[in-house]
Amino acid sequence: MSTYTAFRDKARTFVAVLTVAAGLFALAPHAARAEVASMENALKEMSIGKADAPVVMNDYSSLTCPHCAAFHTTTLNQIKKDYVDTGKVRVVFHDFPLDRIALAAMMLTRCAGPE
User: Fold this and answer.
1) Any idea where the domains of the chain sit in the sequence?
2) How much is the pTM?
3) The CATH number of 37-115 is which of 1.10.10.60, 3.40.50.720, 3.40.30.10, 3.40.50.2300?
4) 45 or 82: which leads in pLDDT
5) Are 94 and 56 in contact (CB under 8 A)?
6) Which end of the chain is less congested by CB atoms within 10 angstroms, N or C?
7) CA separation (Å) from 100 to 59, 96, 113?
8) Is 87 left (phi over 0), alpha (psi -120 to 50) or beta?
9) Given pLDDT bands bounded at 50, 70 and 90, which one contains residue 31?
10) How, if at all, do strands 46-48 and 55-61 pair?
11) What is the spatial distance between Cα 91 and Cα 79, in angstroms, rounded to a whole number?
12) 13-38 mean pLDDT
């Protein structure tokens, strides 16, 4: 097979894939498309507990940190049960991304909304 024939076949394949992708995108139902997150919702304080709790605990964590994950899966549940649910403490969560993956995950969680 000549170089020209190989190039032509690759070009045809590329155009075919591009056409199919464009068709699928155009035919996708508009209701299924994600809405753009509002800036107000993305920057809202993320917290649990009563707003007027006498103690405010600030939690700075990274979504890729194993120590932060251990805290959130074990210790935080006990703090929530003993202090947050009784109205003694409000926990405010702050993002502290340690790497690019954590930064991307933080942006996704901020834009995803409450669900």
Assistant:
1) 1-33, 37-115
2) 0.61
3) 3.40.30.10
4) 82
5) no
6) C
7) 20, 11, 21
8) left
9) very low
10) unpaired
11) 9
12) 59
**β-strand partners of 56:** 90
Q: What is the pLDDT of residues 66-110, one digit of tens each?
A: 998 899 899 999 999 999 999 999 999 988 889 898 888 888 877
d(CA 79, CA 77): 6
- pLDDT value at residue 26: 61
Q: What is the token pair recorded at 73?
A: 């899966």
Residue 97 to residue 92: CA distance in whole angstroms: 16
Residue 114 has phi, psi (to 5 degrees) of -70, -25
Tokens matching residue 53? 């709790």
